[in-house]
Amino acid sequence: MRFLRQAPPRYWLVLVAIVLFAGLPTVVTSFQTSEWTQVLIFAIVIMGLNILVGYSGQISLGHGALMALGAYTTAILIHRYQISYLATIPIAGLLTGAVGFLLGIPALRLSALYLALATFALAVVTPSLIKRPAELTGGVQGILLVPPDPPQPAQDAFALVTGGPPMTTDQWLYYVTFAIALVMFWLAWNLVRHRPGRAMRAIRDGEVAAAAYGINVSGYKTLAFGISAFYAGIAGSLYGLATGFVSPDTFPLSLSFQLLVGVVIGGLASIPGPLVGGIFTFWLPIMTSQFASSQPWIPSGISSAIIKAGPAVSYGAILILIMIFAPNGVVGLVMQGYARLRERLRGAGDRGTGQMPPEAQTV
Amino acid sequence: MQELLQQVVSGLASGGVFASLALALVLIYNAMGLVNFAQGEMAMFATFIAFALIEGGLSYWIAFPLTLAIAFVGGLLVERIAIRPVERAPILTLVIVTLGLATLTNGLAGFIWGYVPRSFPSPFAIGTVNILGAFTSYQNLGVIAISAVVLLLIYLLLQHTKIGLAMRAAAHHPEASRLLGVRVSWMLALGWGLASAVGAVSGIMVAPVLLLEPTMMQTIIIYAFAAAVLGGIESPLGAVVGGLIVGVTVNLAGAYLVGGDLELAVALAIIVAVLIVKPNGLFGRAAVRRV
Amino acid sequence: MGRNGPLLAALVGIITVAACGGSSGTTTATDVGITANSILLGNTIAQSGLAAAYGTIANAENAYFTYINNTQGGINGRKITFKILDDAYNPANAVTLTKQLVEQDQVFAMFSGLGTQTQTSVRDYLNIKKVPQLFVATGATTFNADFSAHSYTLGWQPPYQGEARIYANDVLANHPNAKIGVLYQNDDYGQDYLKGLTDGLGGKASLIVGKESYDVTAAVPTLAAPLTKLKAKGVDTLFIFATPSFAIGSLAIVSAIGWAPLTYLNSVSNPAAYMKIAASKGAKLDGVISVSYIKDPTDPQWANDEGMKLYKKVIANCTSCKVEDGFNIYGVAVAYTMVDVLTKAGSNMTRKNVMDIAANQLNENNPFLLPGITVKTTSTDHFPIMQEQVIKWGSGAWKLQGSIIDERGTIK
Q1: Closest to A289 (Cβ–Cβ): which among C86, C99, C116?
Q2: C105 min Cα distance to partner chain B (Å)
Q3: What's the pLDDT tens digit per position in B97-136?
Q4: A interface mutation test: which of B272, B274, B277, B280 has the most A CBs within 10 A?
Q5: CB contact under 8 A, C215 and B254
Q6: For residue A93, what are the domain limits?
Q7: The pLDDT of residue B155
């Protein structure tokens, strides 16, 4: 009982979230499941980006390019070398991670702004770089991936639970993604709780001081790049599998931008933040283009204006507003709100002992 | 030889386009130590406003300065509304705000004026000029000439006026400047207004060369970044020189080295190479980090 | 009655059977997306981002559907609902949105999806699910040529390779000693054109002395580099396979560098509105050759044409559509074919039947296409439009040259 009372509510939330996500495909349609697969994929890459931006303080506007690398690795291995799709996922992750680590080396010499600039330029040229080695990448034709059938044991288990139609590919890929997401989140959580995370935060908050304390600044910064690239590679690989097609236009600049936005909106330097970021990244364009017109209580003039203006205007406006009013993202807002709530409930200060209430948890 | 000369001359022409936008980037950097990712979109938007004014019946020579004034006020307003609340926030927040601004402005332009490419009038005569056997148009020469004039004006402003001095002081040493009575916040707004006006000049100058459409500046901005970085992000002279060099390099590399489809990658290579080898560019001053 | 009873019953039986299930004209059937009074069609197209200029095509198509709904009460009493979603030209979005339209919104068919990469990404999915992918808005030859592997997919407009072959024939006939240079966009679009040109020249492909590509992310002024290179190689016949902004820029640059080759321009970029912009930038356009299959709204020769009048009436249903935009008359024309197919299906509104009619039984005179062009498919030919006419620019307008060229059967 003591454990239950003392365990921070966060752990309960995590458990509830896991159960909800695990059970999702049993209650929604196969198509809706595939949508949530993409949410989880974005959550994975945003988690990696979070390690780079939130914990080690380096800006990257080029993670779409890293996702492309992961996706194409998977596609080429499957298409050309007939390697099993599940095996290609870790390969894609490790390859992209290595490339990211190498990218981190010149990145050391760039200040925050210039790093943003350089990665921005990288994201812009990515499609044309993909088109060049057309023999390998399929050039502008892209590479089509045949959707994998769910393995029999999985189909049987699923049928047992739902008593319904057999498991579709979309549902199987959801569970693959979900399992990988759990592992990636657990890895990240451990990383930030232990030395690497503390070192990175020290670097983020004051590089010179960190160096003075003997922290290997360049080592950790390049490590952060490598790790975040590893996440992007895994996510990219899953992205290719889930959509069944990779092509240069699948990874435009806007993808990199959306990922960075996702990190910040979710909440930098937080573990649940990337999940919120993933939800936001996937659903906002759909909401802005479809939601408005489907709700009868929104006058048609306004809804058609929203659609015409496109997600761009809403995106930009919402972004600016969030940066101004909630720079710590959604998770930051929630934490603040929760902290204030606790203060209210307990009363500020314990009159008997004069103790102030404990501060809100920050990761 | 003839071909090489032509490539160089054409490269100078494109370079003029890059230089004109790079000047706006340099102005913002001088005002607040930040590169404005939305500069190209704001320039495009201002050009559309000029287009609307001309379509509405105003003559080019009235619409031009009127647009500059509108752009100036617009830049000021944008700074007050979107940037001021996050003035002291970390760079990441500012980067995202300017990127959000870019997205918003682009979407707004598309919403108001649609995506069909349009023609924009040019103040220069139509015709080609023969320079030692290489050809270029009056329009291209005009872009370079106007950029040089703007450069001169900016240089005079920043180096030889009190306001320019106050602006630079506010950007580099905000606390000390406040103590000395400089209204730092308003210097920032001024910087944005000026940069927006310079961007408008750039847009109006290059729209006849490109084509007026919402996507007009989206790739130009990368080349403009390369130009500003190469020249030294603080230096207006660097922006123009950098622009011309980038234009020629990209043309030559595209023609003889990597092929036309990787020209943008050349710009990326320039940016990365400069930032690693000589981050201050050709004309920038070395910054000393105080610990 | 007793002895003739069974005979009579048999006669009645035969007559009943003949009346109910015999010929296709009397089959009554529906399918997903069809209700008693509506037909639901789906579409993904770029309405934001770099390719947003194409977005107006879907709006123009919707304008035609609205016209049909208003003037005829729909097709056989069923009004058309057209659901348009923005994929921003990104194949990943196209996949998600197409799945949504098929599995969630339950559309009857996908119509006029735009973009080669985007439509390729959903082609297998739609064919496996047997959802018609009708009249895709791209000239990429694969959508017509690969019918045997994808029998639920059909193109509409003349394939890019077919158009390029017409140019090749023109060169071989009229300029057999040409030194050819090609500037092409480095994507499926430009590469498809180039292949058609090379194939069409056949043994004379060596006439091509220079091929330069550029990326869609290029800044227009930098096109001077590849064009200068081609000029230096002595090219006297230039092919421009580029989308409008780049085509206009190229035409202007060609004149700006003091060059005057015979120029062939691809049809997507030839609307007179764009030519006029190029001219205003100093491009010398007289003698530029292209092909056309559709009427240009800004061409005065169609001012009193019945088809053009209909177009202008229809396009008024779309408030954001510009009348003079060539993309819009394209949209109305392809929507006309769609309505034609649905009308022919009569009461047999199944996906299979509609697909069958579109792929094998089309034979249509479309009022928005050049006179003499037929939209036609048979069981051995699944290229709906394979006729175009050469046009040449002069005195500020396009002039039709010669007669309609038929390219049927040239592409396998």
Answers
A1: C86
A2: 27
A3: 999 999 899 989 988 898 888 889 888 888 888 888 788 8
A4: B272
A5: no
A6: 2-252
A7: 83
Q: Which domain holds residue B62?
A: 2-277
C117 Cβ contact list (under 8 Å, min separation 6)? A140, A141, A142, A247, A248, A249, A250, C89, C91, C188
* Nearest CB partner across the interface for B279, out of A114, A308, A311: A114
pLDDT level of residue A329 (50, 70, 90 thresholds)? confident
In a domain, A303, yes or no: no
Is A28 a domain residue? Answer: yes
Lowest mean pLDDT among A148-152, A306-310, B103-107, B271-275: A306-310
Query: Does the residue B287 lie in any domain?
Result: no
Residues in chain B with CB shorter than 8 Å from the CB of C223 are: 260
Interface size A-B, in CB pairs within 8 Å, comes to 135
Q: State the CATH number of the domain containing residue B209.
A: 1.10.3470
Question: Is A315 in contact with B107 (Cβ distance < 8 A)?
Answer: yes
Q: How many separate domains does chain B show? A: 1
> Per the domain annotation, does A61 fall within a domain?
yes
Question: Angle at which helices A273-286 and A300-325 pack, to 10 degrees?
Answer: 160
**How is A51-85 classified by DSSP, letter by letter?**
IIIIIT----S-HHHHHHHHHHHHHHHHHHH---H
Rounded CA Rg of chain C: 24
How far B104 CA lies from chain A's nearest CA (Å)? 4
C88–chain A Cβ distance below 8 A for any pair:
yes
pLDDT by position in tens, chain C (length 412)? 445 555 555 555 444 444 444 444 457 888 999 999 999 999 999 988 778 889 999 999 999 999 999 999 999 999 999 999 989 899 999 999 999 999 999 999 999 999 999 999 999 999 999 999 999 999 999 998 999 999 999 999 999 999 999 999 999 999 999 999 999 998 888 999 999 999 999 999 999 999 999 988 888 888 988 999 999 999 999 999 999 889 999 999 998 888 999 999 999 899 888 898 899 888 899 999 999 999 999 888 899 999 999 999 999 999 888 898 889 999 999 999 999 999 999 999 999 999 999 999 999 999 999 999 999 999 999 999 999 999 999 988 899 998 899 888 888 7
For the complex shown, is ipTM > 0.90? no
Q: Is B282 part of a structural domain of the chain?
A: no
Q: Rounded to a whole number, what is the distance in Å from the CA of A61 to chain B's nearest CA?
A: 10
How many Å apart are CA C302 and CA C272, to the nearest integer?
13
Task: Report how far residue B101's alpha carbon sits from residue A318's, in angstroms, rounded to the nearest whole number.
Answer: 10
> Is B7 part of any domain?
yes
**Separation between Cα atoms, residue C288 and residue C238, nearest integer Å:** 10
In a domain, A31, yes or no: yes
Domain count, chain A: 1
Does a structural domain hold residue B284? no
Domains and their CATH numbers in chain C? 34-158+302-381 (3.40.50.2300), 160-292+390-406 (3.40.50.2300)
Is-contact B230 B270, C-beta < 8 A?
yes
Determine the residue of chain A that is closest to C55 in CA distance: A308
In terms of CA atoms, which chain C residue is nearest residue A312? C48
Phi-psi region of C404 (alpha: psi -120 to 50; beta: other; left: phi over 0): beta
Sequence letter at residue B219: T
Parallel/antiparallel/unpaired status of strands C34-35 and C208-214: unpaired
User: By the 8 A CB rule, do C218 and B219 touch?
Assistant: yes
C365 phi and psi angles, rounded to 5 deg: -100, 110
Contacts of B265 in chain A (CB under 8 A): 125, 128-129
CB contact under 8 A, A131 and C191: no
| Contact list, B222 vs chain A (CB under 8 Å) | 120-121, 124
- What number of C-beta contacts closer than 8 Å exist between A and C? 89
* Region A44-49 average pLDDT: 95
